[in-house]
Write a structure and sequence with these properties.
Blueprint (H helix, E strand, L loop, with lengths): L1 H21 L5 E5 L11 E6 L4 H10 L3 E3 L8 E7 L8 E7 L4 H7 L5 E4 L2
Antiparallel strand pairs: 1-2, 1-3, 2-5, 4-5, 4-6
């Protein structure tokens, strides 16, 4: 899981840098990897809440081969999430929401410091 997190973080940081240069706006956007992505099919959807990088996130999601969503990750079937506590210099929140076959136990185990476990919304 750490390799995947590093790849996502690298993409997130590059998008944040680009958005800050362009002014950015506050909104919530998501990238759903349940149909596939650079790492194959994953039971995960990444949500950016109030991110300055929201304006460039669609391109980032498409590059990662995910499904871009202008809004929240689908709530149906979410088991739990893990909020990333690094790379959010703009005060935004980034949460990876996980779906079955992940379990609350496996998600908690993957939320390593400084990341924070998030219960089902």
């Amino acid at each position: 899981m750490s390799f995947r997190r590093l790849a996502v973080l690298a993409v997130a940081l590059s998008s944040l840098t680009a958005a800050i240069g362009c002014g950015g706006v506050d909104s919530t956007v998501a990238c759903d990897f349940r149909s596939g992505g650079l790492n194959g099919v994953e039971p995960r959807c990444q949500e950016w809440i109030n991110s300055l990088a929201a304006t460039t996130f669609e391109q980032t999601c498409n590059t990662a081969k995910g499904k871009y969503i202008n809004g929240q990750c689908p709530r149906d079937g979410i088991v739990a999430g893990c909020e990333q506590k690094t790379g959010n210099a703009d005060g935004s929140r980034t949460i990876d929401w996980y779906y079955s076959p992940e379990t609350e136990t496996s998600i908690k185990a993957g939320c390593t410091s400084p990341d924070t476990f998030q219960p089902k919304p």
